């Protein structure tokens, strides 16, 4: 049956196609018996399989075209429809995912040096402090195959080797995104070329091989297996980049094109096109900063982008088959009932929305709201969860499953995702945070074709700080760009983010949530001031930083009129001193920890700092 998750994302009625399904091989009860989230079947710690796709969308309905994932994961697990990446580009997002830290705390903010990539990951000391190391300390064997980080290449793969893996077979640059010319680097061996072989099929064999290796000890030692397909990322012919500082992708040696599917999938979906949602190639300008200057797409442009979209769906078919193979292999080994399977993407993707060419890196829902599906012991079957979760919540989630005590850890910026029916019910009744920190530095790149003489493939000033906040009665996005332009959408009334209520030409509402609009936005700005430089539990409970007495737990509480002067007059406002391609604190304006909060409800900064 065909269903639309894009409809779910804007709050429409749940389609019947998500209303059930069964798999006789899945038991899935033990976590429900132990609400702690650290469950085991017959006293054995659960295994974990984590599938991480690249650039997979939620809002262009890619999950609708993956019947095996629907059968094995969605029907037999929980879909978290409000799951967000915190930085909408792969390397920073993946580092945040595997460390549980926001990008402003990892300082890995780009895909290549000097501000990102594998060399930056290593120089920041993160190779000794991320998920596989922690899981090994918890008694797990750890395996990984596919893409780890950008700029992990044929020259630096051993400088040093990525730590924490019992077995690994990494895709390495400059061949990572070449669907028919991939290179893999296994354990501590030199890279091997797989020219002429389809990348998705090579990866599947490696993943199943590691799964067989892991199961040899699985009845005495649990395992984690990370599987990171490239699909549906663009096909990219690239050259190694060691210390690029230019913002021009054409000068970086990267030639982008539509993804390439396996030959057996090449003729699928002939009549499919990008969903023509209200924000698709709109007749009027939308957004802020450089986005607001984009021109409508021509018919030739639209036709190419529809082809690009079809190629993405075709490339994902190998991932669909991979997931089914993994589930079946786990069942063959008798491990399915004691294994969690996570499925998500590093970031989302847009094609044509807001007149954007194919790409990511924006703060729109298409780029930051990504699939998350979890199947495993105690996880409800066929459920669509409303709780707000993000990538920095996933490391705490996996550690909790592994039995790691998270109490008192100050190195994680997220909190574990609720997995059981009981946990989800509590979270959806208001016991969980309602916000996501969103941040980006550097440039946005078009991965499609250029159809206008005046059209550039990149936008340099794409640095912004933003937040998403979703409560029972509200659904908002608020952002401040490095140009100090502001952006605000009320997604309850404007689900496709067409009307920036803080644009100079906009007429904002007189009131919102029962208070004057300017009083309302002052609260969001103070919240963003905390989130853009938060660390640890402050990222999870930012209102506690603003109101240490504990009398404000959410946005609705903060709207009380007795806090008007506190928010409107006493707080520093979010701003940038200049635009930069990376995280340079002296360019980022007021910081919460240094000079952001002048008072806390009348208490001088100097008296409580």
TrEMBL record:
Top-level lineage group? Eukaryota
Reactions this protein catalyses: an aryl sulfate + H2O = a phenol + sulfate + H(+)
Per its UniProt record, what Pfam families does this chain match? Sulfatase
Assigned keywords, A-Z: Glycoprotein, Hydrolase, Signal
- Cross-referenced CDD domains: G6S
Q: What stretch or stretches form a coiled coil here?
A: none
In Gene Ontology terms, what is one molecular function of this protein? N-acetylglucosamine-6-sulfatase activity
Enzyme's top EC category? hydrolase
Q: Which SUPFAM superfamilies match?
A: Alkaline phosphatase-like
Q: What is its EC number?
A: 3.1.6.1
Stored InterPro entries:
Alkaline_phosphatase_core_sf, Arylsulfatase, Sulfatase_CS, Sulfatase_N
Gene Ontology biological process terms in this record: phenol-containing compound metabolic process
Summarize what the UniProt record says about post-translational modification. Answer: The conversion to 3-oxoalanine (also known as C-formylglycine, FGly), of a serine or cysteine residue in prokaryotes and of a cysteine residue in eukaryotes, is critical for catalytic activity.
Residue ranges of the Sulfatase N-terminal domain?
46-404
Q: Report the leader peptide range.
A: 1-19
- 3-oxoalanine (Cys) occurs at which residues? 90
Q: Which family does it belong to?
A: Belongs to the sulfatase family.
Q: What is this protein called?
A: Arylsulfatase
Record the organism. Achaetomium macrosporum
């Amino acid at each position: 049956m065909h269903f639309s998750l894009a409809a779910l994302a804007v709050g429409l009625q749940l389609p019947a196609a998500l209303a059930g399904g069964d798999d006789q091989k899945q038991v899935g009860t033990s976590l429900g018996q132990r609400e702690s989230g650290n469950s085991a079947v017959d006293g054995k710690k659960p295994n974990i399989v984590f599938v991480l796709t690249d650039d997979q969308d939620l809002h262009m309905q890619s999950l609708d075209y993956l019947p095996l994932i629907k059968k094995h994961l969605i029907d037999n697990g929980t879909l978290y429809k409000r799951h967000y990446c915190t930085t909408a580009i792969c390397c920073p997002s993946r580092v945040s995912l595997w460390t549980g830290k926001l990008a402003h705390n990892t300082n890995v903010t780009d895909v290549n040096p000097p501000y990102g990539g594998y060399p930056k990951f290593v120089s920041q000391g993160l190779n000794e402090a991320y998920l596989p190391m922690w899981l090994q300390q918890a008694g797990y064997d750890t395996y990984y195959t596919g893409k780890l980080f950008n700029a992990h290449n044929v020259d630096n793969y051993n400088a040093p080797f990525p730590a924490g893996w019992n077995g690994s077979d990494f895709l390495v640059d400059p061949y990572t995104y070449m669907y028919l010319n991939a290179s893999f680097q296994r354990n501590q061996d030199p890279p091997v070329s797989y020219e002429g072989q389809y990348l998705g099929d090579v990866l599947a064999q490696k993943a199943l091989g590691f799964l067989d290796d892991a199961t040899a000890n699985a009845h005495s030692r649990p395992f984690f297996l990370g599987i990171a397909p490239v699909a549906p990322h663009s096909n990219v012919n690239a050259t190694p980049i060691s210390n690029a500082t230019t913002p021009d992708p054409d000068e970086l040696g990267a030639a982008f094109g539509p993804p390439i599917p396996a030959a057996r999938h090449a003729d699928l979906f002939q009549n499919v096109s990008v969903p023509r949602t209200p924000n698709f190639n709109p007749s009027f300008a939308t957004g802020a900063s450089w986005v607001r200057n984009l021109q409508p797409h021509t018919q030739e442009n639209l036709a190419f982008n529809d082809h690009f979209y079809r190629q993405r769906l075709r490339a994902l078919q190998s991932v669909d088959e991979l997931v089914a193979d993994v589930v079946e292999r786990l069942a063959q080994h008798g491990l399915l009932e004691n294994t969690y399977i996570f499925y998500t993407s590093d970031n989302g993707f847009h094609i044509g929305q807001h007149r954007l060419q194919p790409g990511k890196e924006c703060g729109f829902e298409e780029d930051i709201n990504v699939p998350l599906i979890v199947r495993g012991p105690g996880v409800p079957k066929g459920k669509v969860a409303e709780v707000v979760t993000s990538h920095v919540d996933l490391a705490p989630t996996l550690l909790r499953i592994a039995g790691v005590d998270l109490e008192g850890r100050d190195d994680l910026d997220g909190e574990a995702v609720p997995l059981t029916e009981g946990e989800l019910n509590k979270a959806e009744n208001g016991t969980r945070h309602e916000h996501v920190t969103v941040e980006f530095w550097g440039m946005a790149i078009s991965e499609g074709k250029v159809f206008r003489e005046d059209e550039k493939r990149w936008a340099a000033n794409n640095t912004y700080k933003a937040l998403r906040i979703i409560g029972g009665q509200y659904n908002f996005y608020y952002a401040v760009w490095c140009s100090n332009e502001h952006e605000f959408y009320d997604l309850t009334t404007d689900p496709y983010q067409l009307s920036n209520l803080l644009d100079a030409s906009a007429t904002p509402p007189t009131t919102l949530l029962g208070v004057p609009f300017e009083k309302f936005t002052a609260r969001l700005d103070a919240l963003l001031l905390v989130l853009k430089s938060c660390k640890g539990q402050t990222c999870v409970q930012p209102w506690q930083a603003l109101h240490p007495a504990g009398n404000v737990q959410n946005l609705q509480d903060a709207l009380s009129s007795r806090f008007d002067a506190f928010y409107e007059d006493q707080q520093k406002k979010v701003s940038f001193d200049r635009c930069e391609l990376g995280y340079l604190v002296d360019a980022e304006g007021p910081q919460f920890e240094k000079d952001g909060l002048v008072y806390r409800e009348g208490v001088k900064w100097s008296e409580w700092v």
